[in-house]
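Shapes recur. One chain:

:::
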Amino acid sequence: MTIKHWIDGREVDSRETFTTLNPATGEAITEVASGGEAEVDAAVRAAKEAFPKWANTPAKERAKLMRKLGELIEKNVPTLAALETQDTGLPIAQTSKQLIPRASENFNFFAEVCVQMNGRTYPVDDQMLNYTLYQPVGVCALVSPWNVPFMTATWKTAPCLALGNTAVLKMSELSPLTADQLGRLALEAGIPRGVLNVVQGYGATAGDALVRHPDVRAVSFTGGTVTGKRIMERAGLKKYSMELGGKSPVLIFDDADFDRALDASLFTIFSINGERCTAGSRIFVQRTIYDRFVQEFSRRANNLVVGDPSDPATQLGAMITRQHWEKVTGYIRIGEQEGARIVAGGADKPAGLPDHLRNGNFVRPTVFADVDNRMRIAQ
C-alpha cells in the first residue's frame, strides 16, 4: 500500500515514491507518494478555492467541526499511537497516553477559542471610531517536524482551521504516516473538501514549493534554525510562525525541591527520546548540591528502560534515522575526547536488545559531568 496525498478531499498519487523506515528495526514500513510543485500547486489551489466559504462559516459551526475532529482522534488513539510509534521510534507509552491525546485536546481547545475571537469597539473622542477585527489570513502552509509529528501537526492545524483559514500540511518525510490519518479524519469529521490538504514529500521539493507559492499567505514551521532561516529567504514577505531549535538550559539551586528538580530534569531531556526542541540539554547546578545531583541524576538515567518502542514498559525508543543516531553517538565521542566525564550511558548500543532490534537506532541515555562551555557538546 502507498500512502498518498490528500488534495481537495481526494487521495492523489505521485509519479515518484519514497520508502519510510521503522527506526527500531531498520525495516521498510511502506511507500509514500513524493510530491513536488504540481501536487503543491493543486493543493494550494484547492485551499484557495475553499477559503471564502470556510472563512464565512459561522464560528460556532467551525467549532462544532473542530470538536468532532477532536472526538475522532480520541476514538482512534490506539491506531494513531501505534502508527506514530512505528514511524518515529517513540515509546508507545508516550504516544498513547500523552502525545495523541494532546492532539485531540488541541482541537477541543481551539474550538472554544474561535467562538471568543470577536471584534471590539473602544470608547474614544466622538470624532473618531476605534475598533478591532479578527480576520482569517487565507491559505496557510503548515510544515511539521518528525519528532512528534501528529501532535505538532494538530498544534498548527487546529488554530489555523478554527479561525477560518485553509491549509496545506506538509509533514516531514521521516514521519508521514499519521498525516495521512489526519487528512482522512478531517473529512470524516465533516470538514469541507479543500479546507485541509496534505502533501507528502521532501523538504527540498514539496516543502520548498509550498513555502514559495504565491498564493500562500502565511507559513508555520517547526524545525531547525538553519531551515527556518532558509524558508524566510525563499518565501519572502509572508506572515511567519516559527518554532526553531535551541540549546535549552535548566538551572537548579540548592533551595529547590531536590526530587522534583530531578524528575523535571530527567523528563525534559529524555522524554520523546530526547528529540525535542525544548530538551533541557544543559543543566546548571549550584555547587553546594552539584555532587549529590550528579550522582542521583546519573543513577536515574542509567535505570531508564531502553528498548522496543511498542513495549509499554519502554521509556526510550529509537532515534529517527541512522544518520541521526550517528550524529548523536558522534557527539558522545566528541564529549569524551574533549574531556567531559561520562557518568551515565555512552556511545555503545544498549546491551540485551533482542535480535529483531539489532539494526535499530538505539542510544543509551547519556549524561556528562564537569562540562566546559567551550566544549562542542555544550554548544
Notes: DSSP finds eleven helices and 16 strands in the chain. The CA atoms of residues 143 and 221 lie 5 Å apart. The radius of gyration is 23 Å.
